[in-house]
Structures are given as C-alpha cells and as structure tokens.
Amino acid sequence: MINEVPMLTNVTNEAASCMQVIKHPDKSEWKSLLARPTFDTSSLNDTVSRILTDIRQEGDAAVLRYGEMFDKAVLKELRVTLPEINEAANLLSEDLKEAIHVAAKNIEKFHVSQKFETKKIETTPGVICWQKAVGIEKVGLYIPGGSAPLFSTVLMLAIPAKIAGCKEIILCTPPDKDGNINPAILYAAKMAGATSIFKVGGVQAIGAMAYGTATVPKVYKIFGPGNQYVMAAKQLVSLRDVAIDMPAGPSEVQVIADETANAAFIAADLLSQAEHGADSQVILTTTSEKVIEQVLSEIQVQLALLPRKEIAEKALKHSKAILLKNNEDIIELTNEYAPEHLIIETADYIQLAQQVVNAGSVFLGNYTPESAGDYASGTNHTLPTNGYAKAYSGVNLDSFIKKITFQEISREGIQNLGKTIEVMAENELLYAHKNAVTLRLK
Ligand SMILES: NC(=O)c1ccc[n+]([C@@H]2O[C@H](COP(=O)([O-])OP(=O)(O)OC[C@H]3O[C@@H](n4cnc5c(N)ncnc54)[C@H](O)[C@@H]3O)[C@@H](O)[C@H]2O)c1
Ligand SMILES: N[C@H](CO)Cc1c[nH]c[nH+]1
Ligand SMILES: [Zn+2]
Prior knowledge:
Blueprint: E1 2-3, E2 11-13, E3 20-23, H1 30-33, E4 38-39, H2 41-58, H3 60-71, H4 82-91, H5 94-112, E5 121-124, E6 127-135, E7 138-142, H6 151-164, E8 168-172, H7 183-192, E9 196-198, H8 202-211, E10 221-223, H9 228-237, E11 243-244, E12 252-257, H10 263-274, E13 281-286, H11 289-305, H12 309-317, E14 320-323, H13 327-337, E15 341-345, H14 349-353, E16 361-364, H15 370-375, E17 401-409, H16 411-427, H17 431-441
Parallel strand pairs: 3-14, 7-8, 7-10, 8-9, 10-11, 12-13, 12-15, 13-14, 15-16
Antiparallel strand pairs: 1-4, 2-3, 5-6, 6-17
C-alpha cells in the first residue's frame, strides 16, 4: 500500500485529478512536502525478504512459482532460446529498429567518452604507482517489464557493460502471461551484447542473480531500475551477497520554470514521468502563479488525451506544484529534494544549473525534454531516486569497472621511502610491517 504524503498548510487542490498546489510553504515544511510516496516499508521488506529466502533455498522452483504468482506466466524454461532471440528482429518495424540503432550509437558515443586512461605516476623517485580499469566479469542487468517493456533500459545497461569489457552480461526481465519477452527487449539485448537472457522479473530476478540458481548464474554486481519491490530486493541482497549500482526506484522529475517557459512543454514533461507508475512523483517549482495556473490547465488537456491516463492520475495525487519567493529558495529546495531528473526551463537556466549540487541528470532549456535522456541523447537513464542523488551518480561506464592499483618500487625507491614506512609501522605497533621494509634496506 502506498502511504500518502501528509497534507500541508497553504495547499489547494486545483483539480481532483491534478497535483497539489502549495504556495510559499514555510521552510520547516519542506521536508514533509518533499517526501516521496512510499510503500509501507516494513511490510514491503517482509514480503521481499520472504521471496528472497525462498529463492536462496529452493532456486529455480521458487523462481518459477513466484513468476506464476506475479506475472501469471507458466514457464517450462527460464532461459530465452536462440530462436526466440533471432525471431525478435522479424517482429519489429523498420522504424523501431532504426530508432534503436540511432539511440544505441549515441549511448555508445557518450559512454566511450568516459573511458579511463591509465597514467603511471612517480610519487617518490623510484616509486611508481598506477591504476588499471578492469570490467566486472559477471554483471546482472534488470530490465523492468511490469507496466511497460523498457527496452531502452537494455541499451542503457548493456552498452556500457560491453564497452567496460564485462565478459558475462546476464539479463533478467519479466515475461508476459504467455511466457514471452517483448521482442524489442530481445532485439536490443542481442544488439548490445547480452550473453544470456532469462524470463524472470521482480524480486525473483534479483534473488536469482544474487544467489545463482541451477539456471540463472550468480553475478558479481546487479544493475537496473525497477519498482519498489525490485529496489527493496536490490538493497537487501546488497547487504551480504552482491554489489549493486544504486537505489534506482520509481521515476521522478522536478521542473523549474519561469514565464519564458512553454506551459504545454512543462505539462508534457511532468506527465512523461507521472506515466511511469502510480508511485512516480513530479514536482513543479516556480516563482510565478501564472505558470502554475497554465501548467495545471495544460495537464488536464493532455491527460485527457493520454491512452494510459490512470497511472499518471495516480502519480499526480502525490505530486506538487510549489510557488516559491525567489530563485534562491528554488535552488535550496532543489538541492534538498535531489531529484532523479531536473528540467530547468527558465531564461537564466545556465546560471541556475551552476548552483545545482544534488540531481541525477539535468535538462537545460525549453527544447531539452527529459524524454531525450530517457531514450536517445546518449546520457544514461538509470539514475538514483528517492533523494539518493545526494550521494550517488547515475549509471555510467565506471559503474561496470573496478580499478586495480599497481605499484613498482626500485631498490633506490625503497631507500627513498623506507624510513617513512618504518616510522609509521612502528607507531601503529605493526612490527612485521616495519621488518618487511627494514630487510630490504640492508
Ligand atoms: N530510476 C530509474 O532509473 C528508472 C528507470 C526506468 C524505470 N524506473 C521505474 O521502474 C519501475 C518499473 O516498474 P514496473 O512495475 O513497471 O516493472 P518491474 O519490472 O520493476 O516490476 C514488475 C515486477 O514486480 C513484481 N511485483 C509486482 N507486484 C508485486 C507484489 N505485490 N509483491 C511482490 N512482487 C511484486 C513482479 O515480480 C513483477 O514482475 C517504475 O516505477 C519506473 O518508474 C526507474
Ligand atoms: N524515465 C525513466 C527513468 O526514470 C527511464 C525511461 C525508460 N523509458 C522511458 N523512460
Ligand atoms: Zn521516462
């Protein structure tokens, strides 16, 4: 069950299906105002732990059982076969294949540009240190498939994994009730270099990749976004069993706008994240009442035309339009909220952007919709949510890499540095450490 955020002062509900309007909230109210809609976390964690325990103990049998329960799919085989993968290309339009290729090229270009250069550094004469970037050998990618088949997420995860040199790229995604995976997911997975694909979704997928089953290999690090169940499962398995990229849960966007912005664009940007899930949250921040009025009325117009408006309507219930006094307050609130996505549609967007310190990904100007980053501009759309942008980056090439340090010290080098090491070791009462140097100085 989703907990609604508590009501605040100065709140008006402009329209039943639209977001709350909050005018000049007191700073003491910002924290509760900015709270994300959360599930009842104790029952969420109980449910998720129970499923994870079953997966750990029973392996494939539990994976199949929970798949039947949640995805309504009765499967004989969890692994997607080669004929299924190859057939996917025949099921997609040429337009879609072309779009996937254009997006893939840009994502590849941007992530290749993040490559790490090895440099040897002589810290003391005769003491040479360097780092080498090595791709994580076995990675597990989770591709959401509950409310929409996010084949774009395949590109966002498998392309950097391939560039990083990951050898095994395992992909899990929930099947439909007939036991099939959306062909665009399969097509993108093959193109981007996934090495095996499994029809497993939700907590079962995270458990299977964290512990390994007879069919699904255990991986060293799990990546990818998902709903509250998936995010909770990733956080739980990361306590002991496997590394994870970051908490990437229900989508969110904050828009900063002034009167130079286009109300229709802003409404579309807000709805684009509201449509991801009932637990998404969208926030409009501005110093102009007129902007709020225009955007809310645009939302009503566009909502009426949305084919899947029920999801967006639910998300709007815990979304906010916030009127603030000045840009300083807007920036302070933004850095406190730490949105997954921040769109700045104001005349002085560069100046505002320079003051942003907490956000997953920032979109500048009236012609930069978040949809561009979601699909095809080249940046990664797997981003920290729920305020985690205060501490985490979104997925990037580094996420798939470990850096190993090396050092080589010559006879001259140990003479130059030896005394320093000996003194430090002795003062830490670690005499064998000291001796390892002393013997070499003779
Ligand atoms: N932060 C990011 O980078 C990012 C990127 C893309 C998508 N997203 C988010 O990913 C999410 C995708 O969610 P989704 O639901 O569409 O797909 P999903 O694949 O994450 O979740 C579907 C799975 O949830 C499990 N599930 C459903 N109900 C359950 C229950 N009652 N108990 C236990 N497990 C249950 C099922 O196993 C099902 O297969 C959305 O919230 C979206 O906003 C985030
Ligand atoms: N906005 C999502 C990240 O929060 C990513 C996505 C995938 N497809 C469309 N959008
Ligand atoms: Zn999106």
